[in-house]
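Figure 2 data, in text form.
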Amino acid sequence: MSWLSYSSLIPPNLFILLIAMGLVLAWRWTRLGLIVATVACACLYLASTPVVAEYLFHCATGLTDVIPRLPSDAPPGAIVVLANDFRRGQRYTVGH
């Protein structure tokens, strides 16, 4: 499944995926599917409001006190961002 990656499982993509799954579920189990789709719509709306974004930002900045500090006063020599994503690409030949 190359269309599904970790970046598909974070908001807002997660909520859009849950809405689609809820609508598919609604064909078989109407009540369950509509509940899943409605909750996902509410979460998508709430995640896009400035109030929730500000709250999440303050929660994330509150975690900076938990991060251990370096014993020296020297600035770090590198910034490392840990992330991973894999996408298969088509191979193109030159001249064809």
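Caption note: The two ends are 28 Å apart (CA to CA).
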